[in-house]
Amino acid sequence: EDSEQTSPYQVAWSVRETLGYERHESDDDNADDRSSRVTRLCTYFQQKYKHLCRLERAESRQKKCRHTLRKALLQAASREPERAGQLIQELRRATCARTSTSQARQRDAEPTTCSGTSKGEQCTNKALPYTRHCFQHILSNRSQQLFSSCTAKFADGQQCSVPVFDITHQTPLCEEHAKKMDNFLRGDSSRKVQHQQQRKPR
Ligand SMILES: [Zn+2]
Ligand SMILES: [Zn+2]
């Protein structure tokens, strides 16, 4: 029932429409009217069934085609790998050109250059997928929700501004600060263990 624009289905739909139309017109429904409606419904479902069969057959035909193409490409690749590679690239380009939507989708996914600047100079890093910023500049995008600034502060009180992808912690830390925190906690716990060990003998 999707984007198929072939005629049989449209015919079937128009049959249904005429059925609905007739139902309104004939309020005095007699036996003749009923039987004619039933026959029309029958033809409608028959057409629908035929159409679905046709779709199914087309699908299996496509599957077979794809299978034979894959087999042929495999054979070609084992015989002449370079030529086969060229052919695959050409095929891919052809299919891309044919479906404009997938082309647009590819364009979206294609990495573009970061639109951010560092010290007045244009960033040359590749942008993250579906964004216009690289990892260093992703925080310039205020609508994004995945990255946040490191929540740690340096010894001089300055806020760390390294972007972090961490959706599990409430106070995300960059790699450097996460390591420092880990070391701190480890030292803390080992200190506690030492204290306990020192206390135990007493
Ligand atoms: Zn950048
Ligand atoms: Zn940090």
From TrEMBL:
KANL2-like probable zinc-finger domain boundaries: 120-178
Domain of life: Eukaryota
Alphabetic keyword roster: Nucleus
InterPro entries in the cross-refs: Znf_KANL2-like
Organism lineage: Eukaryota, Metazoa, Chordata, Craniata, Vertebrata
The protein's name: INO80 complex subunit D
Location of region: Disordered: 98-118
Locations listed in the record: Nucleus
One cellular component term from this protein's GO annotations in UniProt: nucleus
Nucleus among keywords: yes
